[in-house]
Write a structure and sequence with these properties.
Helices cover about 0% and strands about 40% of the residues. The chain has about 180 residues and is an all-beta fold.
């Protein structure tokens, strides 16, 4: 029929050195949590699904929790992510907190707290910025403070005392400011 124009002669394997072939790994590369934007310097500690920790947890690196933690978590200069399998019953102090799992306890963050749609938080929240996705669960109070002030003790609210209206003992009006208007 027809002949190939570019036929190559069969090489003698003894005369020509073998070509280098790159190795392809079938192992999937480790996936980083979605919430992290990492630089090459950042170290992230990982608590796996089967790990249970009870007590005080503190560190000087970012932390990803997919297991169970009970007690307190102190990461004042670092990020904390509670993964979708994470179950935390602790008070948390961190620079930034992302919740994809379940947290029961108070959360204080210098920068921001983000509760993803799969996440739930039952506890009070103190942060400079707060993100709660549609479908997320939150039960507690929110105190938004300027950046860097989240770890400071909140100021006591000022009470204003006002005199009760004439003819009243004042018991039900204590602490409620009263505005007077002149009627024509």
């Amino acid at each position: 029929m027809w002949k190939r124009k570019d036929e190559e002669p069969i090489m003698n394997p003894a005369k020509e050195p073998p070509k280098e072939v790159s190795t392809v790994s079938t192992m999937p590369q480790e996936r980083k949590p979605e919430s992290w934007v990492e630089s090459s310097k950042t170290t992230v500690a990982h608590i796996g699904k089967s790990v249970v920790i009870r007590g005080e947890l503190s560190g000087s690196e970012d932390l990803y929790i997919d297991g169970q933690v009970e007690g307190t978590i102190e990461l004042r200069e670092h990020h904390l992510t509670v993964g979708p399998n994470g179950r935390v019953q602790a008070n948390i102090n961190a620079k930034e907190v992302v919740i994809q799992g379940s947290v029961k306890g108070n959360v204080k963050a210098v920068d921001r707290v983000e509760i993803r749609k799969s996440g739930s938080l039952a506890g009070d929240l103190v942060a400079a910025r707060i993100v709660i996705e549609d479908g997320a669960f939150f039960k507690g109070s929110i105190d938004i403070q300027k950046g860097g002030d989240a770890h400071a003790k909140p100021a006591e609210p000022k009470r204003t005392e006002a005199a009760p209206p004439p003819g009243d003992s004042g018991s039900k009006y204590a602490g409620v400011p009263i505005e007077a208007k002149k009627l024509n």
